[in-house]
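Table 4 source record.
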Amino acid sequence: MKDQIKLSVMRNSLKALYWSNAYKVFENSWQGVGLIYMLHKVDPMPVEGFAPNRILQLRPDFLEGIIRQAIDKGFDIVSLDEAHRRMSQREYGRHFVCFTFDDGYKDNLHYALPLFRKYNIPMAVYVPSDYPSGDGELWWVALEQVIAHHDALTVVLPVQDVDMAMQERKFDTATEAGKWAAWRAIYQVMRHEMDEEGQRGFIAELCWRYGVDMKQICRDQIMTWNQLREMDRDPLVTIAGHTVTHRAVGRLSAQDSLFEIETGLAHLEFELGHKVEHFSYPYGNEASAGERDFQLANSLGLKTAVTTRKGVLFPEHSNHMMALPRLSLNGDYQSLEMNEVLLSGAAFALFNKFQKLNVE
């Protein structure tokens, strides 16, 4: 219920800024010099009922609308290399947009790439190196499938604010409302209260108990190496790093964080046969990647590294190329009107309390 209320408030706030034209007040000072879009999946199939991961999915027609909107507003749609060049050389004459996709879903090849070819514009795909081999653990998809396919669940979860205590929880998931309640309770603990190893151990045991094959999920949804190479051969596409196993590097030791970043890049370079110079931190919020991880990425000679911290790019980001913000194209916000507000920078000025940088 709280998630739905929050979502409704966000939608209504964006709509109010749009219909009142209040967002236009922010454009001159808060639009910045460019922005980086974050996407995941592009699929024309409608999503209904219990589908918590639908926020990761956009319709191709909506994505095309976003592309046309950027073109109509006079934004240059550029590659990550070109964004890096403009930021490094302080070339801020024209606003620019980058389109980036996380994780390497097959629909990026089948539905997104044809659109970018149609408009002859670049795109980037960040890929965890375990994924194209079929070894990835898309735990958020696995959790959705466990809940979706069963009418009752029993799980053991840590008790909040009690060290080392565990508690058995039973969920009635026979109804859609019950499934959503189970998702919110379990996801919250997995994402925010378990460490990375505990999270992976928990979902592995849950999948074993309820008959969900995480490796098959990966094989079904993620591009193979051959498909990734097909994308990589297209001059419009940049393939970039996203760790080895899609772990939140900020929650790991410095040694393990460096391993995830460096080894993921090296594996991609081996399979693709060329240097990989851009990177995305999995999850990418403040708890998932911080100053230490930005320094580690910088030590590897990367050109850019992106977070999920909300915002547009300002000239000041030229000094923080390992901590670039992005604008999430969330499946719950498939509205060109709301996107126009986001392009103005108005929402981020308010969200970030009128601070241009959030890089610590």
